[in-house]
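Example 3.2
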Amino acid sequence: MASVVMLATGALIGIAAQGVSAQSTVAANTFNRNFTTMALLKPITAKGTGKVGAILPDTVSSTRYVEFDAPMLTEALTDAGLPASDFSVVNAHGSDATEFTDAQADITNGATVLIMDPLDPGVGAKIESYAKAHGVPVVDYDRLTLGGERTYYVSFNNVTVGTLLGDGLQSCIAAWHVKKPDVLEMHGAVTDNNATLFYQGYNAVLAPHFANHTWKLAGRPAGTWTPTVALSEFEGFFTKNPNINAILSPNDENNAPIIGYLKTLGLKPNTIPTTGQDATLTGLGNVLIGYQCGTVYKPIYLEAQAAVSLAIYLRAHVTPPTALVNSTVEDTTEHVAVPSVLEPPMWVTKANMNATVIADHFVPPAQLCAQPYADAAACKSAGIKP
């Protein structure tokens, strides 16, 4: 797994003082939890015109959009030198119509760049077509709009996210001594390209076990990012096959009601391995108390800063440095390679939680170490001080 290069504030200031421009110092691996890299963009910000509009998709598929993305995008935009009057960060609350209206409103109000996380490819493509007609470039944020017309894409390496999920389940099945693994391989929403990439990653890990019959494939539900639907999918398979004893869940929110359901049936800790993603309080709590093997942590401050950096360059009509645009991702509908910034995810377990999400102040320890998430004893055993 790639490592994140953390630069101290003083080092960044020293580089800038020596006359090195933001063009040569802002790179995919220079962002950090203190947002210090963003100050290097102020000269680029000063050259730009217009506003930046950031549109997030919903509050249901993951709590991250409210708890992390919105405030971190705001912090990155502010630290890059944009006054509050020159940007907006809004949420479409799960409505395609609202997301499109938000984009129209941003452009009407003077946005010259959009950062947009599409609810689905249909509304994403509609927004990008409208933006293009008005001369406004779009940065796809977290999800790639298949069939769209964005300029750049920012996310984490989503195949790696899936690989971490698969490796995590594989390790946990061994550690929890699961005999004759009967695995339910769940999926995110089929309309979300990220869910496809996650599946590519974890299925590459799981498929050899199914092929050599060391594990049994219990099934592959249709897929969703709605937790209640994920629970219904699970219940349908579990009712037919109560021997299911390992679950590849693609995120914490989908996994939580499944754990809750199994607990009503008498589930004990460290017996049925499950997985998750997003390092939510619920997911981290389930990891600490032994109902979830781990969660894929995506330091959203990296993604937010990368997206804002691209927006600042676009707003000033300046080509971003090649060290920032570090990859490409294929739009499988248009069959084009989209210039991208991909940040590295990491697998978080009880063993490294204190050194990762807690050290990053991603969640408050006092909240995590109390009901309904975990407890002081579980946190203490993980080296976490409430």
